[in-house]
Amino acid sequence: MIGATSLSMIPLLGFGLLDKHTTNLPAWLLDWITINDGHLANYTPLKITDPTHTYAGGYMNEAEMPNAPTTSGFIMLASLLFSRPESRHYGSKTLLTAIEAATHAILKMQHSDGTIDYLDTNFHSTPDTAFVLENIAPAYRYLLQSKVQGTETALRLVKTFLTNAGEALIVGGIHTPNHRWVVSAALTRLNELFPDKRYLNRIDQWLAEHIDIDPDGQFNEKSTNSYSPIVDRSLIIMARGLNKPELLEPVRRNLMMTLYYVHPNGEVVTEASNRQDKGTVGTMARYYYCYRYMALRDKNGEMAAMCRLIEQTTPKEQLAGFLDFFLEDPTLWNDLPASKPLPTSYAKAFPYSGVVRIRRGGWDATILSNNASWLTFHKGNAILQGMRIAASFFGKGQFESEKVKQQGNTWVLTKSLEGPYYQPMAKEKIAPDGDWDKMLRSDRQQSEIQKLESTVSITEAKNGLQVDINITGTPGVPVALELIFRAGGTLAGVSKHPKKENAFLLAGESGSYTVNSDVIHFGSGKAEHKGVQLRGALPAMDAPTVYLTGYTPFRHTLFLG
Questions:
Q1: Three-point CA angle 129, 134, 136, nearest 5°
Q2: What residues contact residue 393 under an 8 Å CB cut-off, 6+ apart?
Q3: pLDDT in the model for residue 24
Q4: What is 229-253 written as a DSSP string?
Q5: Strand-strand pairing, 478-485 and 382-391
Q6: Is 110 helix (H, G, I), strand (E, B) or coil?
Q7: In sequence order, what are the residues at sequence separation of 6 or more whose Cβ sits closer than 8 angstroms to the Cβ of residue 502?
Q8: Measured on CA atoms in the order 388, 390, 395, 396, is the torsion positive or negative?
Q9: Which of 11, 266, 291, 430 has a CA that sits 20 to 30 A from residue 545's CA?
Q10: Which of 176, 213, 185 is nearest to 289 (CA)?
């Protein structure tokens, strides 16, 4: 079940005015309303009940800090349920009183410039005000739609918050690329409620910068588990509200690209993100609204198939958190077009993201540039979440490659390192006071230069991959290769490291990692030493990790399958 905080952080973009007396909701939407009836109780333990508290009637986050995102989430959900005759909370005077109290509180959280604070990091924040507004704008329409007597006070309070926020959004700045579209989507919604040329002018200023989508079809932040679906949703809202269908083209491109970022178990590839969702475990649920909207608009069978996959792999309670999207647009209630097969067998490069995706039915792999975890391998729910290799070479031997190059059927990653020593400073460059920091290393002659050349070659093999590792140059350098598995499975064919937790050595021909009926086989092994945390290497991850160890020249072939 989605917690109150989770609900409050879902950007709820868009709300259409529907006549509750003439709308026949499909059974699945009625089910979602029932689920949200239960979700409302998640806010109860977060409510500020002390009548003397500055933010009495508002809501706290899980750290017990009164905050606008959680409070706005309550206002939105409570207003939605208050307005829907299908909800057990419909027309509840008690709930209306709670909505008024929460709105009083959030107005106290709003600064005189119209902004709110996001206590985790941002203060007087225009973009976070936009996220909050995207909860509050639907709440206004829900209350207006309800036609229940006594909503005048709540409507007046909510309108005050919205118009104050609008003053911030037409002048305030942003931090990240997606903020432009979140702010613009919020301004679009404001303009629908309270038309104002200033809102449209500010949107045009942001749109003049163009949409930040690359030739691969990915947005600048490459944030597949967070900001890409937010950008897609924002652009859809803008396209509809501004009558700019051209804004759907980047959405279309991103959604089609993302079809190739899906693991067989329905999770999404996150390792290439340059935001906080990098390497997180995420599903495709956040994309559901976007895929459904575009599948119906374009009559796209692949997008329809993705919707059905999301339905199969996402708990119904999670999808119900997006109820607002589906109440605002009755066209989304239509049956999806017939499915067309999703891509499940391919080797496809996304060079602008530094990603190569390989999938063959029930297994898939991701090869990454500029990433110390340069390979992942999924077999159902048995998951190798990262492969890393490091050498104890002058404290800088953690391997990652600037590029992934294709050579025939092989994908190649490389890195070259030097480890020099330095001669005495030339007499004329010696600092008179002997201050070391004034005698730059770049001014010293180098000598005894050591070199390390690392090459990783990845080739498809029968039912998996062959990984060839070749590290040459200075001989005798300790090397450790890590196979980092997601917790929850069982290792076999390996031996526990005598001193390190969650660390195992593979000395034999093969090992395996099993989760239920899913098994990853790997080998052969190499265990020439037990130095698994080499100087200059990244710290071990908190996950079951199998190590292969040796010395340069290090030449080894590993099979995954």
A1: 90
A2: 417, 419, 450, 452, 474, 477, 536
A3: 85
A4: HHHHHHHHHHHHHTT-GGGHHHHHH
A5: antiparallel
A6: coil
A7: 540, 542, 543, 544, 545
A8: negative
A9: 266
A10: 185
The predicted model gives 18-29 an average pLDDT of 69
What is the pLDDT, as a whole number, of residue 23? Answer: 60
- Summarised one tens digit per residue, pLDDT across range 282-331 is 999 999 999 999 999 999 999 999 999 999 999 999 999 999 999 999 99
Cα dihedral 315, 316, 317, 320, rounded to 10, equals 130
Dihedral Cα 535, 415, 222, 281, nearest 10 deg: -50
* Angle between helix 197-207 and helix 177-193 axes, rounded to 10 deg: 160
CA distances from 185 to 234, 360, 486, 537 (A): 5, 39, 37, 43
* 301: CB partners within 8 A, 6+ apart: 295, 337, 338, 339, 340
At 18 the pLDDT is 45
pTM for this prediction: 0.92
Angle 483-350-387 from CA coordinates, rounded to 5°: 5
For residue 50, the tally of other CB atoms under 10 A from its CB is 10
CB crowding 198-224: b at 16 or more within 10 Å, else e: ebbebbeebbeeebbbbebbbbbbbbb
What are the distances in angstroms from CA 109 to CA 118, 165, 443?
A: 10, 12, 56
Q: How far apart are CA 200 and CA 208, in angstroms?
A: 12
SS3 assignment, position 365: strand
Comparing C-alpha atoms, which of 327, 561, 360 is closest to residue 465?
561
Average pLDDT of the residues in 59-87: 97
The string of DSSP codes covering 195-209 is --HHHHHHHHHHHTT
In the numeric block, which tokens belong to residue 183? 């702010």
Domain ranges of the chain: 1-174, 345-422+450-560
Closest of 83, 82, 58 to residue 70, by C-alpha? 58
- CA 13/CA 19 separation, integer angstroms: 19
Q: What is the DSSP letter of 499?
A: S
